[in-house]
Amino acid sequence: MSLRFWRPEVVETHGVKLWFAAPMLRKGHRRQIIRGEYESAELAVLDGTLAADDTVLELGAGLGLVSIFCAKRTGDAARVHVFEANPYLHEALKRNFALNGVTPDLHLMAAAKQGGEVTFNVDRSYTSSGLHGRPSETTEQVRVPAAGFEELVQRFRPTYLIMDIEGGEVDLLPGARMDSVRKICLEVHPDIVGDEPISRLVADLLANGFTLHFSHTRKNVVYFERTAVAAGQ
């Protein structure tokens, strides 16, 4: 049946219930969800690498599908720390958490180099929104609170970092102190920031003891891991 006429309130994908009637979802998003394609690359990486004892820091939660998967896998939602800056996603995140009976540690703010307040570009397609968004006639710029990335790492001591922040990765990761982090699931965005900044990011992670695992990498979602010794623990 065409999505034009069929729009249930809730659907299930990858074992997670999602608020399918959420107003910010576009036709393309709904089609991906129905086909099981939405966030499928991230979930494939996490399914093979996320351990029950990991502490998760997720930057860029979207609808919360990955957050919910992590909460279920670890069995302790309090160890899943979630950040989402887009104000138009906050209601959907809360509804989706409630639908699945999980309560990750949700923070409705951005992660940036420094704490304070930042300009966030809200695109009509929420998956293209971010600090590095490309302003256009359909983009709304809003000021949102931000937490310093290194401060978050020191506060929560995550072992697993998940990041999908539409180009913001090139600002936060190179040179960052994140001694507790042993695993990184990272979506890179060469279409937004270019190949050279991402290459420098990868080189920095490799220089800090991470290995790029091609066996777990899917499309633009790349996976890095290092031992506790390399992480300085």
TrEMBL record:
Record-annotated Methyltransferase FkbM domain positions: 69-192
A Pfam family the protein falls into: Methyltransf_21
Record-linked SUPFAM superfamilies: S-adenosyl-L-methionine-dependent methyltransferases (SSF53335)
InterPro entries in UniProt: FkbM_mtfrase, SAM-dependent_MTase, SAM-dependent_MTases_sf
Record-given protein name: Methyltransferase FkbM domain-containing protein
